[in-house]
Amino acid sequence: MVLLSSLLPLCVLAAVAFAVPAQEKRVHHQADLSDHAHDDSHNYQYDHEAFLGKEEAKTFDQLSPEESKERLAKIVDRIDTDKDGYIGHAELHHWIRHRQRRYIEENVNKHWKDYDKNQDDKISWEEYKNTTYGFYLGEEFDDVEDKNTYKAMLARDERRFKTADRDGDGIATREEFTAFLHPEEFDYMKDVVVQETVEDIDKDKDGKINLEEYIGDMFTPEDGESEPDWVQTEKKQFSEFRDVNKNGFLDPEEVAQWILPGDVDHADNEAKHLIHETDTDKDEKITKKEILANWNMFVGSQATNYGEDLTKKHDEL
């Protein structure tokens, strides 16, 4: 029995609670595309990692310039999904988003065979349910100490699966199963993320979050323990900012504004940046020729690494 999706959020939240301030554990921020500063005057490392993904960028750094350009040309063909010979903003934006989600897709692929029992490259709800809960289903969780919790987990998984299953056929493609396991990464799953968050925090089950529930999700004092200063700060955040309509509660819309902030779309900005820097005829789209003429902005090689090493040594001198 796997219990991957159901237990994963609980494990993640438990880990995150120790890694970051408690008041941040519910917020889903969009990660930047690279750990490097975006400073093209120094090097293109940020652009390389944004365009290729961090691990693939390292691979290109070991190639000769000729090999890098050859591989880049093949990548351009993949990005040009409508095969019109041009890379538009939408195509480049989609590619960069895809590369940044690659670690998630690799995680899904790693567990895919655990669920795809009939090996048809799809996962039905029945396959997932039987793999995850099969041992208990016939017994209605009677042997489980907290069977109501498991029943709730099953119902929650089914609701999330049906939402991820966009065509409603009861079968998840890889994309849909990725949305099921990582709903915070998909716009059409945001209502589920909000609903599950409300259910987690809303102890009196009135469909909204009051101040006591909001703070209780972050801090439960031990006997004699004084309240940390940040709790007062969070109470102020709740009343002055999160509770937009000032009714003393967070409704689902206010919860969405809290946990799914309108972060900067880094992939969108990077797509615009690469097109702006590469589009020599200023038609707001780029060709393979234009990309290859500026290949070292998109990908690295042994030569670019050598150049960076020389720059670093010069700076040290």
What is the fold's blueprint, element by element?
Layout: H1 4-19, H2 45-52, H3 54-60, H4 65-79, H5 89-100, H6 102-115, E1 123-124, H7 125-137, H8 147-164, E2 171-172, H9 174-181, H10 190-201, E3 209-210, H11 211-216, H12 229-242, E4 249-250, H13 252-259, H14 266-278, H15 288-293, H16 295-298, H17 302-316
Organism: Nothobranchius furzeri (Turquoise killifish)
InterPro entries: EF-hand-dom_pair, EF_Hand_1_Ca_BS, EF_hand_dom
Family: Belongs to the CREC family.
Beta fraction of the residues? under 5%
| Number of DSSP helical runs | 17
Radius of gyration: 24 Å
Mean pLDDT: 85
Distance between the first and last residues' Cα: 60 Å
Give the beta-strand count: 4
Q: How are the strands of the largest sheet arranged?
A: 1-2
Q: For this entry, what is the oligomeric state of its chains?
A: single chain
Apparent shape:
globular
H and E string: HHHHHHEHHEHHEHHEHHHHH
Q: How helix-rich are the residues, as a percent range?
A: 55-70%
Spans of at least 5 consecutive residues whose pLDDT stays below 50 are: 3-23, 305-317
Query: How would you characterize the largest beta sheet?
Result: 2 strands, antiparallel
Structural class: mainly alpha
InterPro entries: EF-hand-dom_pair, EF_Hand_1_Ca_BS, EF_hand_dom
GO molecular function: calcium ion binding
Organism: Nothobranchius furzeri
Protein name: Reticulocalbin 3
Give the key terms.
317 residues, mainly alpha, two-stranded antiparallel ribbon, two-stranded antiparallel sheet, 17 helices, 4 strands, disordered N terminus, disordered C terminus
